[in-house]
Design brief:
By secondary structure, this protein is mainly alpha-helical. It contains 2 helices and 2 strands. The chain is 62% helix and 12% strand. It has a two-stranded antiparallel sheet. The longest helix has 74 residues, at 39-112. The protein is rod-shaped.
């Protein structure tokens, strides 16, 4: 923007698409180009901006629904894995308990000899007098 010392132009000198606006800043006159806005241009601009906004909003809604579905899926997987984890912990605890009992029986057999073996055989026999079948391990 250059300082201006010339006269103010008349209406015939101003282009009808672009109007030169004179501004006085600190005692100097400057010419500022301004596009003349028409109602049609403003309406077209507002319409395009509104359509862009609606398109963006629709995209956000789609993304939001996808995220809700993904969250629900992940929460379901988490619940499923938590229940699976707790059942596996119960199973591990049961196996640890059975292992400890078996270790105690082995220790008792080593320490007590045949009397402990007879006691364990009596425990294994059923009320009908018939001994239970032993599993091979």
């Amino acid at each position: 923007m250059a300082g201006m010392a010339e006269e103010i132009p008349t209406n015939s000198q101003i282009n009808h698409r672009e109007r030169n606006i004179l501004c006085r800043v600190r005692g100097h006159w400057f010419r500022v180009a301004e596009v003349i806005l028409t109602i049609i241009g403003v309406m077209r601009f507002l319409q395009t901006e509104w359509h862009r906004h609606e398109r963006d909003r629709n995209g956000w809604e789609i993304e939001r629904q996808e995220m809700k579905g993904r969250i629900a899926k992940l929460e379901g997987m988490t619940r499923k894995l938590d229940s699976s984890n707790s059942s596996l912990k119960k199973y591990v605890n049961m196996l640890e308990k059975a292992l400890k009992e078996r270790d105690n029986q082995v220790k008792a057999l080593k320490a007590g000899g045949s009397s402990a073996a007879n006691a364990s055989k009596e425990k294994e026999s059923s009320p009908g007098g018939r001994p239970k079948q032993q599993r091979k391990s």
